[in-house]
Protein backbone atom coordinates (compact mmCIF):
# COMPACT_ATOMS: atom_id res chain seq x y z
CA UNK A 1 0.00 0.00 0.00
CA UNK A 2 1.35 3.41 -1.00
CA UNK A 3 1.70 5.89 1.87
CA UNK A 4 0.53 9.51 1.44
CA UNK A 5 2.39 12.75 2.09
CA UNK A 6 1.68 16.48 1.71
CA UNK A 7 3.42 19.21 -0.28
CA UNK A 8 2.91 22.95 0.33
CA UNK A 9 4.76 25.69 -1.53
CA UNK A 10 5.48 28.24 -0.20
CA UNK A 11 4.99 27.84 3.56
CA UNK A 12 6.89 30.84 4.84
CA UNK A 13 4.00 33.31 4.99
CA UNK A 14 0.30 33.97 4.44
CA UNK A 15 -2.05 31.15 3.50
CA UNK A 16 0.80 28.68 3.00
CA UNK A 17 2.07 29.20 6.55
CA UNK A 18 -1.41 28.90 8.07
CA UNK A 19 -2.19 25.84 5.94
CA UNK A 20 1.00 24.03 6.92
CA UNK A 21 0.41 24.67 10.62
CA UNK A 22 -3.21 23.56 10.30
CA UNK A 23 -2.30 20.30 8.56
CA UNK A 24 0.33 19.58 11.19
CA UNK A 25 -2.47 19.86 13.78
CA UNK A 26 -5.27 18.16 11.89
CA UNK A 27 -3.47 15.19 10.32
CA UNK A 28 -0.62 12.87 11.18
CA UNK A 29 0.73 12.97 7.63
CA UNK A 30 4.33 13.92 6.83
CA UNK A 31 4.66 17.32 5.15
CA UNK A 32 7.23 18.80 2.81
CA UNK A 33 7.05 22.59 3.06
CA UNK A 34 9.14 25.12 1.14
CA UNK A 35 10.73 28.50 1.69
CA UNK A 36 13.30 30.56 -0.19
CA UNK A 37 15.46 31.21 2.88
CA UNK A 38 15.80 30.78 6.67
CA UNK A 39 14.62 27.17 6.56
CA UNK A 40 15.31 26.56 10.25
CA UNK A 41 13.41 29.70 11.23
CA UNK A 42 10.44 28.79 9.04
CA UNK A 43 10.29 25.30 10.53
CA UNK A 44 10.46 26.66 14.06
CA UNK A 45 7.66 29.11 13.29
CA UNK A 46 5.45 26.42 11.74
CA UNK A 47 5.91 24.00 14.62
CA UNK A 48 5.17 26.76 17.12
CA UNK A 49 2.04 27.77 15.20
CA UNK A 50 0.79 24.18 15.12
CA UNK A 51 1.24 23.32 18.79
CA UNK A 52 1.08 24.84 22.26
CA UNK A 53 4.11 25.34 24.45
CA UNK A 54 2.42 23.13 27.04
CA UNK A 55 2.33 20.11 24.76
CA UNK A 56 5.94 19.00 24.26
CA UNK A 57 5.00 15.63 22.79
CA UNK A 58 2.81 17.27 20.16
CA UNK A 59 5.60 19.71 19.31
CA UNK A 60 8.14 16.91 18.89
CA UNK A 61 5.70 14.97 16.69
CA UNK A 62 5.08 18.00 14.45
CA UNK A 63 8.81 18.66 14.13
CA UNK A 64 9.47 15.04 13.15
CA UNK A 65 6.79 15.09 10.43
CA UNK A 66 7.68 18.48 8.99
CA UNK A 67 10.44 18.85 6.43
CA UNK A 68 11.31 22.30 5.06
CA UNK A 69 13.35 22.58 1.87
CA UNK A 70 14.59 25.47 -0.23
CA UNK A 71 12.49 26.30 -3.29
CA UNK A 72 12.17 29.42 -5.44
CA UNK A 73 9.60 29.05 -8.22
CA UNK A 74 11.51 31.54 -10.38
CA UNK A 75 14.56 29.24 -10.30
CA UNK A 76 13.72 25.93 -11.95
CA UNK A 77 16.91 24.28 -10.71
CA UNK A 78 15.73 24.80 -7.13
CA UNK A 79 12.34 23.28 -7.96
CA UNK A 80 14.03 20.25 -9.48
CA UNK A 81 16.33 19.89 -6.46
CA UNK A 82 13.35 20.11 -4.10
CA UNK A 83 11.52 17.37 -6.03
CA UNK A 84 14.60 15.18 -5.78
CA UNK A 85 14.67 15.81 -2.03
CA UNK A 86 11.00 14.82 -1.90
CA UNK A 87 11.74 11.55 -3.71
CA UNK A 88 14.46 10.80 -1.17
CA UNK A 89 12.16 11.46 1.78
CA UNK A 90 9.18 9.70 0.21
CA UNK A 91 10.36 7.06 -2.31
CA UNK A 92 7.78 6.70 -5.12
CA UNK A 93 8.03 2.92 -4.77
CA UNK A 94 6.35 3.15 -1.35
CA UNK A 95 4.83 6.66 -1.15
CA UNK A 96 2.74 9.04 -3.22
CA UNK A 97 2.02 12.76 -3.09
CA UNK A 98 -1.56 12.93 -1.83
CA UNK A 99 -2.24 16.60 -1.09
CA UNK A 100 -0.34 19.27 -3.04
CA UNK A 101 -0.84 23.01 -2.71
CA UNK A 102 0.85 25.27 -5.26
CA UNK A 103 0.42 28.72 -3.72
CA UNK A 104 3.01 31.18 -5.08
CA UNK A 105 1.66 34.65 -5.71
CA UNK A 106 2.55 38.33 -6.06
CA UNK A 107 0.49 41.34 -7.07
CA UNK A 108 1.43 44.51 -8.96
CA UNK A 109 -1.94 46.28 -9.46
CA UNK A 110 -2.45 48.53 -12.48
CA UNK A 111 -5.54 50.67 -13.06
CA UNK A 112 -4.46 51.96 -16.48
CA UNK A 113 -2.46 50.38 -19.32
CA UNK A 114 0.16 53.12 -18.89
CA UNK A 115 0.77 51.85 -15.36
CA UNK A 116 1.92 48.46 -16.60
CA UNK A 117 5.62 48.08 -15.93
CA UNK A 118 7.17 45.46 -18.19
CA UNK A 119 9.57 44.03 -15.62
CA UNK A 120 6.92 43.93 -12.88
CA UNK A 121 4.43 42.27 -15.23
CA UNK A 122 7.05 39.72 -16.25
CA UNK A 123 7.75 38.99 -12.58
CA UNK A 124 4.02 38.50 -11.98
CA UNK A 125 3.78 35.95 -14.78
CA UNK A 126 6.95 34.19 -13.65
CA UNK A 127 5.73 33.76 -10.09
CA UNK A 128 1.98 33.37 -10.50
CA UNK A 129 1.78 31.32 -13.71
CA UNK A 130 5.14 29.79 -14.55
CA UNK A 131 5.72 29.10 -10.85
CA UNK A 132 2.82 26.63 -10.55
CA UNK A 133 3.71 25.22 -13.97
CA UNK A 134 7.25 24.25 -12.96
CA UNK A 135 5.87 22.81 -9.71
CA UNK A 136 3.58 20.63 -11.83
CA UNK A 137 6.52 19.68 -14.03
CA UNK A 138 8.73 18.43 -11.20
CA UNK A 139 6.29 17.36 -8.49
CA UNK A 140 3.51 16.01 -10.71
CA UNK A 141 5.44 12.79 -11.23
CA UNK A 142 5.16 12.10 -7.49
CA UNK A 143 1.35 11.92 -7.64
CA UNK A 144 -0.13 8.40 -7.80
CA UNK A 145 -0.46 6.58 -11.09
CA UNK A 146 -3.32 4.40 -12.31
CA UNK A 147 -1.78 1.32 -10.77
CA UNK A 148 -0.85 2.86 -7.41
CA UNK A 149 -2.34 0.95 -4.50
CA UNK A 150 -4.43 3.61 -2.74
CA UNK A 151 -6.02 1.27 -0.21
CA UNK A 152 -3.94 2.76 2.62
CA UNK A 153 -6.12 5.87 2.27
CA UNK A 154 -9.35 4.34 0.97
CA UNK A 155 -9.74 1.72 3.69
CA UNK A 156 -9.94 4.52 6.26
CA UNK A 157 -13.00 6.01 4.63
CA UNK A 158 -11.70 9.48 3.90
CA UNK A 159 -10.35 10.29 7.35
CA UNK A 160 -6.78 10.98 8.35
CA UNK A 161 -4.93 8.01 6.75
CA UNK A 162 -3.08 7.33 9.99
CA UNK A 163 -6.39 6.79 11.76
CA UNK A 164 -5.95 9.10 14.73
CA UNK A 165 -9.00 9.40 16.97
CA UNK A 166 -7.77 12.60 18.63
CA UNK A 167 -10.23 15.50 18.70
CA UNK A 168 -7.91 17.61 16.53
CA UNK A 169 -7.36 14.93 13.88
CA UNK A 170 -10.56 15.00 11.89
CA UNK A 171 -9.60 16.41 8.53
CA UNK A 172 -11.46 14.77 5.69
CA UNK A 173 -8.66 13.50 3.44
CA UNK A 174 -10.09 12.54 0.02
CA UNK A 175 -9.47 9.00 -1.19
CA UNK A 176 -7.90 10.40 -4.35
CA UNK A 177 -4.81 12.61 -4.49
CA UNK A 178 -5.53 16.31 -4.99
CA UNK A 179 -3.44 19.06 -6.58
CA UNK A 180 -4.63 22.59 -5.72
CA UNK A 181 -3.34 25.62 -7.62
CA UNK A 182 -4.00 29.01 -6.04
CA UNK A 183 -6.03 31.21 -8.37
CA UNK A 184 -8.37 34.21 -8.03
CA UNK A 185 -11.78 35.28 -9.23
CA UNK A 186 -10.17 38.07 -11.25
CA UNK A 187 -8.67 35.34 -13.45
CA UNK A 188 -12.15 34.84 -14.89
CA UNK A 189 -12.53 36.66 -18.21
CA UNK A 190 -16.30 36.30 -18.09
CA UNK A 191 -16.46 37.86 -14.62
CA UNK A 192 -14.27 40.84 -15.50
CA UNK A 193 -16.58 43.82 -14.98
CA UNK A 194 -14.14 46.41 -13.66
CA UNK A 195 -11.01 46.05 -15.78
CA UNK A 196 -7.58 46.95 -14.45
CA UNK A 197 -5.07 44.67 -12.77
CA UNK A 198 -3.85 43.65 -16.21
CA UNK A 199 -0.87 41.51 -15.27
CA UNK A 200 -2.48 39.89 -12.23
CA UNK A 201 -5.69 39.02 -14.12
CA UNK A 202 -3.66 37.55 -16.97
CA UNK A 203 -1.49 35.53 -14.60
CA UNK A 204 -4.50 33.99 -12.86
CA UNK A 205 -6.27 33.25 -16.15
CA UNK A 206 -3.07 31.44 -17.05
CA UNK A 207 -3.23 29.50 -13.77
CA UNK A 208 -6.73 28.29 -14.63
CA UNK A 209 -5.59 27.24 -18.10
CA UNK A 210 -2.54 25.26 -17.01
CA UNK A 211 -4.51 23.60 -14.22
CA UNK A 212 -7.10 22.42 -16.73
CA UNK A 213 -4.36 20.97 -18.92
CA UNK A 214 -2.69 19.34 -15.93
CA UNK A 215 -5.95 17.73 -14.85
CA UNK A 216 -6.42 16.31 -18.35
CA UNK A 217 -2.90 14.93 -18.11
CA UNK A 218 -3.80 13.28 -14.80
CA UNK A 219 -6.92 11.73 -16.32
CA UNK A 220 -4.71 9.63 -18.60
CA UNK A 221 -1.82 9.19 -16.17
CA UNK A 222 -3.64 8.61 -12.88
CA UNK A 223 -7.30 7.93 -13.81
CA UNK A 224 -9.39 8.21 -10.63
CA UNK A 225 -6.36 8.30 -8.34
CA UNK A 226 -5.64 12.02 -8.76
CA UNK A 227 -7.33 15.31 -9.61
CA UNK A 228 -6.20 18.91 -10.10
CA UNK A 229 -8.23 22.09 -9.72
CA UNK A 230 -7.71 25.83 -9.26
CA UNK A 231 -8.96 27.59 -6.15
CA UNK A 232 -10.10 31.11 -5.26
CA UNK A 233 -9.75 31.67 -1.49
CA UNK A 234 -11.46 35.06 -1.39
CA UNK A 235 -9.71 38.14 -0.01
CA UNK A 236 -7.44 36.94 2.77
CA UNK A 237 -5.75 39.16 5.33
CA UNK A 238 -2.18 38.58 4.16
CA UNK A 239 0.60 40.81 2.91
CA UNK A 240 -0.49 40.26 -0.69
CA UNK A 241 -3.79 42.06 -0.17
CA UNK A 242 -2.89 44.48 2.65
CA UNK A 243 -3.13 47.54 0.40
CA UNK A 244 -6.82 46.78 -0.27
CA UNK A 245 -8.16 45.75 3.14
CA UNK A 246 -9.94 49.09 3.60
CA UNK A 247 -11.90 48.50 0.39
CA UNK A 248 -13.26 45.11 1.43
CA UNK A 249 -16.33 44.53 3.60
CA UNK A 250 -15.26 43.05 6.92
CA UNK A 251 -17.39 39.94 6.42
CA UNK A 252 -15.54 39.33 3.14
CA UNK A 253 -12.03 39.87 4.53
CA UNK A 254 -10.91 36.50 5.81
CA UNK A 255 -8.28 35.52 8.33
CA UNK A 256 -5.71 33.01 7.03
CA UNK A 257 -7.07 30.42 9.46
CA UNK A 258 -10.63 30.81 8.16
CA UNK A 259 -9.36 30.70 4.57
CA UNK A 260 -7.52 27.45 5.28
CA UNK A 261 -10.57 25.80 6.83
CA UNK A 262 -12.71 26.71 3.81
CA UNK A 263 -10.01 25.51 1.39
CA UNK A 264 -9.80 22.13 3.10
CA UNK A 265 -13.60 21.83 3.10
CA UNK A 266 -13.53 22.23 -0.68
CA UNK A 267 -10.62 19.79 -1.03
CA UNK A 268 -12.54 17.24 1.02
CA UNK A 269 -15.72 17.51 -1.05
CA UNK A 270 -14.43 17.66 -4.65
CA UNK A 271 -14.52 14.46 -6.68
CA UNK A 272 -12.35 13.48 -9.62
CA UNK A 273 -15.21 14.71 -11.83
CA UNK A 274 -14.66 18.22 -10.49
CA UNK A 275 -11.12 18.51 -11.81
CA UNK A 276 -9.81 21.12 -14.22
CA UNK A 277 -12.15 23.81 -12.93
CA UNK A 278 -11.78 26.75 -10.55
CA UNK A 279 -13.68 26.58 -7.27
CA UNK A 280 -14.16 29.32 -4.71
CA UNK A 281 -14.20 29.22 -0.92
CA UNK A 282 -17.96 28.58 -0.92
CA UNK A 283 -17.53 25.49 -3.10
CA UNK A 284 -19.02 27.29 -6.11
CA UNK A 285 -17.43 27.21 -9.55
CA UNK A 286 -15.70 30.33 -10.88
CA UNK A 287 -16.42 30.24 -14.59
CA UNK A 288 -13.66 30.97 -17.14
From TrEMBL:
<dbReference type="GO" id="GO:0016491">
    <property type="term" value="F:oxidoreductase activity"/>
</dbReference>
<comment type="similarity">
    <text>Belongs to the short-chain dehydrogenases/reductases (SDR) family.</text>
</comment>
<protein>
    <recommendedName>
        <fullName>Oxidoreductase</fullName>
    </recommendedName>
</protein>
<dbReference type="InterPro" id="IPR036291">
    <property type="entry name" value="NAD(P)-bd_dom_sf"/>
</dbReference>
<dbReference type="GO" id="GO:0005737">
    <property type="term" value="C:cytoplasm"/>
</dbReference>
<dbReference type="InterPro" id="IPR051468">
    <property type="entry name" value="Fungal_SecMetab_SDRs"/>
</dbReference>
